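Worked example

This section walks through a single chain of length 139. The input is the sequence exactly as stored; nothing has been trimmed or padded.
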Amino acid sequence: MATYVKYERFIEALVNEEVDVFGTTDTFKAVIHSDAPTVATDDELADLTQITGTGYTAGGEDIANDATRTGGTVTMTTADTVVWTATAANWDPGRYVSIHDDTATTDILMCSFDYGGNFTVGNGETFTLDFGANLATFA
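Given that input, the structure is written out below as tokens.
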């Protein structure tokens, strides 16, 4: 199972209203990358080295984010499973998936998932993200 880690700058961006997790104005995307996140200093998509390969779109795939509030707790959800398919050749090895706010001017990083080791998606194979019921909870 992948390990969830939040980027520290994201919490500041959330409090400063730079990001909208409710999905009414901001689109969040998932990217695959090879370099380990430095959560204290990485704060934008440009800080990461995304994989390359036919079928992978630099900048990532929309996770169809939404959120609900109950009392003082906001739960961020995703409506869709994200599926990538390698075509024409194998993709570069990846190890991490990070979520970023694609609407923010600097593509603010939200969180990262460490898969614990490098993985390669072979030609014709798929890589699927399924966040389950909730991506994150803010209380």
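What to look for: The chain has one helix and ten strands.
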